[in-house]
Amino acid sequence: MKDTSKETTLIHAGRNPHANHGIVNPPVYHCSTVLFPTLDALEESDRNPLEGIHYGRMGTPTSFAFEEAVAALEGGYRAVNTASGLAAIATGLMAFTKAGDHILVTDSAYGPTRRFCKETLAPYGVEVEFFDPAVGAGIEALLRPNTSVVFLESPGSLTFEVQDVPAITAAAKRVGATVMIDNTWATPLFFRPLEHGVDVSIHSATKYIVGHADAMLGVLVCRDEASWTAVKKAATRSGTTGGPDDLFLGLRGLRTLAVRLKQHQESALALAGWLAARPEVRRVLHPARPDFPGHALWKRDFGGSSGLFSIVIDPVPRAALAAMLDHLELFGMGYSWGGFESLILPTRPAAMRSATRWTDPGIVLRLHAGLESPDDLIRDLEHGFRRMRAAL
Question: Which of 150, 194, 248, 255 could form a disulfide with 172 if both were Cys (CB 3.0 to 4.6 A apart)?
Fold first, then answer.
C-alpha cells in the first residue's frame, strides 16, 4: 500500500477480511491466557515473547491490527499500543532513559507530560530540563553527552507554539539523543514526524483517532526496529496495553479520520476568523492563521490543521467569565478533545512554564471545534459573550 493516499490507507490498513471469514472489521479478542499445543511451541514463544501471540498483555490480533494500521499511516516501522495517551508518553520516556541521563522537554508540553518528568523521572535520577519551544537549531547549546531524549510537542496543546522539528532533530542526532514528539494535534494525516528525523511519534489515540469521546488509548509509532524493540519492551515490562474494546474503537475511528478532520479543520478556521474580529478577543492562537508567530513553520511542515486552538480574551471578573461559560449550549466544559463534540476550557499557561514566561494578563480559553454546524457554534459563543458583557 506504499503508493496509496493517506485517505485510502486509513480504510484498508490493518484489515484482512479473508483471514476472518470475510468479515470487514477485525474481530475483538478478549484474552489473557494463550494456550500452546506442545512444549516445543511454548518454549519457542518464550524465546521471543515480543513477537506473535504469547500472552494477552503482549498483543492479540486486535492490537496487531490497530498497530499495523497506525504505523502504515505514519510511515513507521511498527507501532506499540498503550492504555492512554499519557501511558504512551510515559512508556516512550522510560524506554530511553535511565538514572544519570539528561533529557530536554519542550516548555509547551502537555501538563501531565511535565508532571511525569518532574515527579517520576526526576526522583529516579533523570535530570529534566525544559526548553523554549522556539529554540530551533539553538538547542545545540543545551545538548550534553548524556542527553538521552529530546521531547517535542508541536504545536503545544495550550498555546500552540510550532517547533522547528527538522532543525532540532538534526542537532539531537549529533549527540545520539532519541527524539520523540507528541503528534496528537496534527495526527499522521497532517504531520509525519518520522520523515523529519523523529524516532518515536506519540499519539493520544483517545483524541482524534478514536474520535468519539468513548475510549482511552495511546500509541507510539517507531522509526526503526531498534526504537520499536525498546518501546515494546518498556510497554510489556510496565504492563500498559489498551483494552480490546478500546483498540477496536481506535480501529473504527481510524476509518473516518480523514473526513472528520476535514470538518474539524474547516469549523475551527471559521470560528477563529470570527473570534479574531470580536472586541473581547485580544489574540487568536491558531497556527494556520497568517498572523500567528509560528505560521511559517506550520506552513512549511504541516498538511493541515485540526480543531483545537486557543484565544486570549480581555481580563474579566470570574463572575463574568462564569456567565459566559456556564450557559453555553453547544460548547461543553471538559478535559480532552478530538471527539465529535465542541469543548471550551479556561486554562492557565503561566502555571505550566519554567524555561519561558507567559506574561499575557488576558484569560486563555482553549476551544475544540466539533462536528456541529459552525454557524450554530458561532451563535453559541456570541450569546456567551453577550452574557459576559451583561455581567460586567
Answer: 150
